């Protein structure tokens, strides 16, 4: 993503500005270590380009940057649930407006903290009190940490995912390792399956790997990306393939050829069996992406 051409709204520091991208505001980071963009709509990382590299994050060429719609590509924040276990699918965080809480920078990089808290809009969807913080650390690597604190007087349940779309040279020559062998296949009505220790993709894939290693490696002909997760109980791997890409109005038809999602996920089949967070405790999920 070309960040330099975006119109500047305000300058916050030498490295951090607020810029306009169609109908959404983005926190733009231009540092000697890396460039990045984070949409305030959705708390959504759109781009991360370390010095001397191509963007590690994939964005759809047909993505719609509008506050009424989740953004296709980047790193959507799926919370307080992941999947279709409640409405809307993947929760409300990716469709909510986050606020810039804090930003810091030094010679090693930039840290940006966004916040989302209980509102009338969130209570209409999920009747719970919370305070969420999304910390994005931009340097030689990208680290995204979601921390959601229970500020209610009762326990609540949640699941979630950091739905990372990774940029690959060619899906046909990409291999994935470290995801483990056991998975739930979303294309086979949730059938539990077992596979090998290396995944090559030549058709649509929608899998929840239930015993992933801490680090999953995605390798193509040009580079290897490592995805190191914490706070998760699963890793989702997804590529919609030809028919899936063609069915989505906000995904370019050939987009499936240069992307794969490898997601830090806390998976649950329903909110009733999701992670229980007691008052004053927090749900934390993170992912670190490195070339």
From TrEMBL:
Its EC number is 5.1.3.15. Belongs to the glucose-6-phosphate 1-epimerase family. InterPro entries: Aldose_1/G6P_1-epimerase, G6P_1-epimerase, Gal_mutarotase_sf_dom, GH-type_carb-bd. Keywords: Isomerase. The gene is yeaD. It is an enzyme of class 5 (isomerase). Gene3D superfamilies: 2.70.98.10. The active site is at residues 163, 263. The lineage of its organism: Bacteria, Pseudomonadati, Pseudomonadota, Gammaproteobacteria, Vibrionales. This is Putative glucose-6-phosphate 1-epimerase. GO terms for molecular function: carbohydrate binding; glucose-6-phosphate 1-epimerase activity. One of its GO terms (biological process) is carbohydrate metabolic process. It catalyses: alpha-D-glucose 6-phosphate = beta-D-glucose 6-phosphate. The keyword Metal-binding does not apply.
